[in-house]
Amino acid sequence: MTLKMTVKNNHRAPHSTDSASLVTLNGRGNENRLIMIAFTASLICHCIFFSVLLYAQTLKPKRRHAPIVMNVSLVSLPEYSGPSKQVSKPSVSGKKKVSKKAVTIKKKPASKPAVAPKTVKKKVSLKKKTYKSEKVKKSTLQKLEKKIETTTSDRIAKAIDEIKAKVDKEKERAPSRESEAQITESKQLGEDGETVGGKLAEIVDIYRVEVAYKVQHNWAFPEQLADGRTDLQTLLVFKVMPNGEIKDLFFTDRSGNSHFDESAFRAVMKSNPVDPHPRSVSEPYVQMGLRFTPEGIQ
Amino acid sequence: MKSDEYIKPMKIVLRAIFGCVVALMVSQTSIGAAEYDYIDISNPFLRKIPLAVPWFKNISGNQDLEAQSVKLPDLLSDTLEFTGYFKMLDRQAFLMDPKNPDILATHINFRNWTAIGAELLITGGILVKDGLMETELRLFDTIKGKLIIGKRYKGGTDDTLRMIRRFCGEVMLHLTGHRGVFDSKIAFLSSLSGKKEIYISDFDGHNSKQFTRHEDITLFPAWSSDGKWMAYTSYAKGQPGLYIRNLTKNRVATLDKQGIQITPAWVPGKFELAATLSFSGDQEIYLLTGGGKIIKRLTNSRGIDVEPTWSPAGKQMAFVSKRSGTPQIYIKDMTSGRIRRLTFQGRYNTQPDWSPKGDKIVYSAMDTGRIDIYTIEVDGGNRVKLTENQGDNEAPSWSPDGSLIVFNSTREGRSKIYIMTAFGTDQRRLISMPGEQTNPKWSPSVISN
């Protein structure tokens, strides 16, 4: 780009020299002017090129990153249950299937047991008149057999349904894994579509929250050391390497209460190492920022 | 001229481009500074510092010290746990040989301690040398793998308690900037002997001893700021009279005035005290010498003025007055003489005690038929209820470091002595003694054990 532009400028130069030659009859002046014009033109092009580059850089992470401040209530945060929620629904549907099958299985014996009470009633009457013990034995045996059949069939049905549910779960997981793989592949290929970028940002954000949760779990601070102040604030920044190792931990702001600052620092250090990066994240590190405040103490 | 005309716009364009580039670069750096996404963490999971205290090492190998190597770390753990700052980790979780503990930084594997959650570690070694017992105690920061405090104490075998408490004081000094409560005592009233008498116990409620033997009703114990004198009221002479008594020497001063003499409070750093006297007909607060002479009258209003308590610098005095119709807490500035009302909520606010840190006043107040303990900031803001739904809770008194409050409560039936942190947490019974115990007063941290 820059080369082309300079050539064009060189072509233009002779036209412009006509007017300039009236003032500067010296040939050197023309040459200098040409060089200067070429130089300025190339400089302009360079500046535009680099500024575009700089601007493009600033745009990239903005799309991926979450808002600057994320207010996450870590107290009420349950353990990461992203996939389990998805799994729970199909398992419910699986159960419904089980119940239907169980009903169909039960229906067949249900007609006979329905007779069975009648025989029992007869048995009562037979006791007085003609008591046939063999028939009673047979009927009870039949009952027991049916019961065993139904129970075993129930169990088998349940087992089958459980296996089916498992298969369903795996099926559901499989596409998500595929999608994760697609994300990584697309990323490696340099495709930076908005949806993929959004998913990646979500995954990184979830990972960040997980790390923050671990740090919070390791944060020990006696309320007496806050001296009743709830306006303390400590900001810590660190990098999480792909293997979960915490690096480059430093304060970006201190509270003024050394006990408070120290407790926050210890919490992060105690959490080292955290869980490794999710598979879909191929960043060299995940940048973490934590804001510690004692608001939840009182 | 024409060349100039040509060059000028070029210059302008160049300047504009340069300006744009600079602006872009500046914006880039500003984005760099604010690029961190901060996640808020506002609730510490643990409200106490996890501390590990393994068994002490018997350095000399003396068989007689085997029992001490187990007993002393237990004593140290109990002493530090009492403060409410520490969570003592279970020794069964320790990743070490309990019989052969490493006590030096060079030998300690700090990862074994951080793995079980310990942030601090105290190791100890004991030996007997020349008939004296030597105790080496070290406090380590397990996260940084650093020695924070290292002390060696020498003394007789009877001095082990003092050694442990002295080291605990060092730990607290490092943590809070104050030596803690280990050099303090608690005076309280008990009906153990059949009459209300003053008893004095260690800070942890142990080793209680009877102090007064008037064989009559005794009330309102008050420690002098040097911990050498105690003022109190006794009905020994029929009327409630003031006694100013030395704790070690047999010296007692009384006041030669008619009427009731109650609720004494020593001025910090002086051999002077304020007390309520009624010889003028009305209950007013007077400033007295330690010898029982009246210096001046401090309050002058209709209705009773009782229960004075001094700010740590002795420049202000809080007290209870019924001048507005109901008992409320007021603060008098001793320099200007100006009096302002502190409490406005409720119709019964009494027994104020000024925090050693100077920022708060703890008091008891009746609310919905029950008496509970509250703290309020000296400017009247941030009123906090510390006890609730646990009987009547009265007579709060600050620990010398301002981290704990001792009080009496009827939560288990008869009135007993309890303590809690300055924020109302960790409420627990302090003294186990037959009879009723009331009106505890925490001493300053000057009494040697």
3D structure, described in words:
The complex is a heterodimer of chains A (298) and B (449). With 298 residues, chain A is mainly alpha-helical. Chain A has helices spanning 2-23, 27-64, 82-128, 133-189, 194-217, 258-271, and strands at 69-70, 234-240, 246-253, 286-292. In chain A, 68% of the residues lie in helices and 8% in strands. Chain A has a three-stranded antiparallel β-sheet. Chain A is flat. Chain A starts with a helix and ends in a 6-residue tail after the last strand. Chain B is an alpha+beta fold and 449 residues long. Helices cover 16% and strands 39% of the residues of chain B. Chain B starts with a helix and ends in a 7-residue tail after the last strand. In chain B, strands 2, 3, 4, 5, 6 and 7 form a six-stranded mixed β-sheet that branches. A four-stranded antiparallel β-sheet of chain B has the order 10-9-8-31, with no helix packed on it. Chain B has a four-stranded antiparallel β-sheet with strand order 11-12-13-14, with no helix packed on it. Chains A and B meet through α1, α2, β1, α5 and α6 of A and α1 and β1 of B. β1 of chain A pairs parallel with β1 of chain B.
Gap from first CA to last CA of chain B: 99 Å
Separation of the first and last Cα atoms of chain A: 64 Å
Uncertain ranges of chain B:
26-33
Largest interface: A-B, 70 and 52 residues
Give the beta-strand count of chain A.
Answer: 4
The number of helical elements of chain A comes to: 6
What oligomeric state do these chains adopt?
A: heterodimer
- Poorly predicted regions of chain A: 1-27, 58-129, 173-193
What does the largest sheet of chain B look like? 6 strands, mixed
Biggest pleated-sheet summary of chain A: 3 strands, antiparallel
